[in-house]
Amino acid sequence: MTNPARKPTPRGVNKHRDAEIKKIQIAKRWAVDNLGGFDDDTYRDLLQEAGSKKRSCTDLDWRGRMAVLKRFEELGWKPLPAKGARPAADRPSRRLADDYQSKMCRGIWIDLHTLGEVRDSSEKALNSFVKRMTKVSDLSWCNDNQKYVVIEALKDMRARHTLKLMYQWCLETNGVHLPDSLAGEIRLVLRGLRIGEHPKNSAIERLGSAGFYLLTNYKIWETQTYGTP
Fold first, then answer.
1. In angstroms, how far is the first alpha carbon of the chain from the final one?
2. Under 8 Å CB-to-CB from 101, ≥6 apart: which residues?
3. Cα-based distances in Å from 82 to 18, 66, 148, 186, 226
4. Whole-prediction pTM value?
5. What pLDDT score does 200 carry?
6. What b-and-e string marks burial along 22-51, b requiring 16 or more CB atoms within 10 Å of the CB?
7. pLDDT given for residue 193 in this prediction
8. Which burial class, exposed, middle or buried, applies to 196 when counting CB atoms under 10 A from its CB (0-12, 13-18, 19+)?
9. Closest CA relative to residue 31, chosen from 69, 96, 64, 76
10. Contact 162/191 with Cβ under 8 angstroms?
């Protein structure tokens, strides 16, 4: 009995599979060389995120391979128009994550640098902090929950450092010590709300008029001294 004929593969779907897999591997090497902290685990996470939960490029279908290549291009990789590597000056720069949470992380990090708590305001330094908090090497690879963890940690850092500056300001400018009972409430106000929390009262109700006046004067001094908003 004659075996039934195999159904032809849809035109264009698997025709260039090997070439597409090779492109993914080239893009991976580019990422390792150009994106700080990009390792094999990061690569597998990218495949899983963009390639229908597959963690090997050989398991991807055509749509998955296209999605992975597109993700690499979003990160700055561009396929070479011809054989041979381009000079270093022609390499594309990495595109920063620009969603709301990433911008918030970056903004607080820069604030901490301005206030003297962080020595290096660069994206590389921020990513080192992100890795310590989430085990993910780059902010652009973090999901929303991981970015939330980073934001809350940065808000805590900023509140602690601002309160330390405020202690010094009270002593040097007003000649008084900031009461510990008021300091705790001020720290809560400085740190702001966590996502999903609802304020029980306003800052002036929490601190009282005297505490609110003290905080307002400190923020004026901070702006004049450090240029922070």
1. 83
2. 144, 147, 148, 151
3. 18, 20, 42, 61, 50
4. 0.56
5. 56
6. ebbeebbebbeebbeebeeebbebbbeebb
7. 58
8. exposed
9. 76
10. no
Residues 64, 67, 73, 74, CA torsion sign: negative
- Pair of tokens at residue 121: 């305001």
Residue 79 is which amino acid? P
Could you read off the pLDDT of 181-222 as tens digits, one per residue?
A: 888 888 888 877 555 555 555 777 778 888 888 888 888 888
Tokens at 79, concatenated: 């396929």
What pLDDT, in 10s, does the model give residues 106-136? 989 988 888 888 888 888 899 999 999 999 8
Domain extents in the chain: 17-80, 100-226
User: How many CB atoms sit inside 10 A of residue 146's CB?
Assistant: 17
Residue with tokens 């070439």, as numbered in its chain: 19
For the chain, what's the residue count? 229
